[in-house]
Amino acid sequence: MPDEIVHWLGEISPNVIVDGTYGGGGHSRLLLKQLPPEQGQIIGLDRDPAVSERVESEEHDRRLTVFLGSYEKIPKALAAVDVPMADAALLDLGLSSDQLADPNRGFSFTKTSAELDLRFDPESGQSAAQWLAWHKEDEIANAIYQYGEERYSRRIAREIVARRRREDGVKTVEDLVDVCRRCVPRSKNHDIHPATRTFQALRIVVNDELGALERTLQSAPDWISENGRLAIISFHSLEDRIVKNAFRDDPRWNVLTKKPLRPSEEEIQQNPRSRSAKLRVAERVQQSNTT
Ligand SMILES: C[S@@+](CC[C@H](N)C(=O)[O-])C[C@H]1O[C@@H](n2cnc3c(N)ncnc32)[C@H](O)[C@@H]1O
Q1: 14: which of 40, 85, 222, 291 is 20 to 30 A away, CA to CA?
Q2: Alpha carbon of 100 to ligand 1 centroid (Å)
Q3: For the chain, what is the domain count?
Q4: Is 208 left (phi over 0), alpha (psi -120 to 50) or beta?
Q5: Domain range spanning residue 130?
Q6: Which residue from 212, 209, 215 is spatially nearest to 235, judged by alpha carbons?
Q7: What 3-state class would DSSP assign to 286?
Q8: Same domain, 59 and 182
Q9: 291 pLDDT band (50/70/90 cuts)?
Q10: pLDDT at 289 over 70
Q11: Cα(162) to centroid of ligand 1, in Å?
């Protein structure tokens, strides 16, 4: 939703912008154009080491600095560039098209022999294959139900655990796709792959995606300047609910988008993955109004 981001964040003429999910840098490139010439700065973060490697290998605007790390570390990144607060910040949650297109990350179902990893940062924490190898059946079922909203979660968990006993466990994309095909009946219009919800659930778990979002929403009023703005694009109802509630329940925010903004038909046609995107924007109210 590039036009909406430029509108809502550009409107306040920010000097310091944080792009907490830098990815391919598309939003940052547009936001750089909103800064006064030769002034201001964008501080980008991404958990994926491939992003920082790519940025280091490219020529880029000297007003841009990109750090490797979770957006939970935004205060640390601001301190590293000697800036006390951000005027505007963006979180564009989920996966980038580069990650989805890379057959070795386990995010897409195309290269099925790839290891079932699903981490944004493959150098920290447990891969999805390791997570499935070490957790109990009911923990696996609960995670798939809670984070994937998959009604066949118990069947899937039972089959995963049975494979651990019978065979070598669930190690590759192909292994998990096969489990899901056996356990999930085909949807009526065949519009959703039987493994989609389970992959989403495991990705959320191994990256602690909802925890990172909750913690960042709690801390954001401390590092966004008064009248500064935070824009969040989410891709599923679990994330959107967290954003909606945090903006509504914290008196330090004034919600600018009473209903979430959705992409235009034109954007959906150009980029079908944007179909489920929802954008919410809030403004940090002045301190005197919250005390
Ligand atoms: C939808 S993409 C962002 C695309 C970007 N806005 C653009 O214009 O190219 C999401 C990015 O967020 C990153 N990401 C996911 N969780 C993160 C976290 N907790 N901290 C920092 N980056 C994260 C992913 O690695 C991915 O590159």
Answers
A1: 291
A2: 12
A3: 2
A4: left
A5: 121-206
A6: 209
A7: coil
A8: no
A9: low
A10: no
A11: 35
Q: Which amino acid is at 247?
A: F
Q: Does residue 104 form part of some domain?
A: no
Residue type, 12: I
State the pLDDT confidence band at 111, using cuts at 50, 70 and 90. Answer: low
- Ligand 1 centroid, distance to 195 Cα (angstroms): 22
CA 180, CA 199: separation in Å to the nearest integer? 10
Closest Cα to residue 199, out of 170, 177, 168, 169? 177
- Other Cβ atoms within 10 Å of 93 Cβ, number: 20
pTM to 2 decimal places: 0.95
Closest residue to atom 19 of ligand 1, CA basis: 70
Report how far residue 144's alpha carbon sits from residue 183's, in angstroms, rounded to the nearest whole number: 13
Tokens standing for residue 225: 């300047």
> Is 247 within a domain?
yes
Q: What is the DSSP letter of 108?
A: S
Which of 138, 173, 206 marks a domain boundary?
A: 206
Residues 228 and 199 in one domain: no
What spacing in Å lies between the alpha carbon of 269 and ligand 1's midpoint? Answer: 22
Please work out whether the CB of residue 49 comes within 6 Å of at least one atom of ligand 1.
no
Q: Whose CA is nearest to atom 9 of ligand 1?
A: 24
Q: Is the dihedral of CA 102, 106, 110, 114 positive or negative?
A: positive
Quick one: pLDDT at residue 290? 62
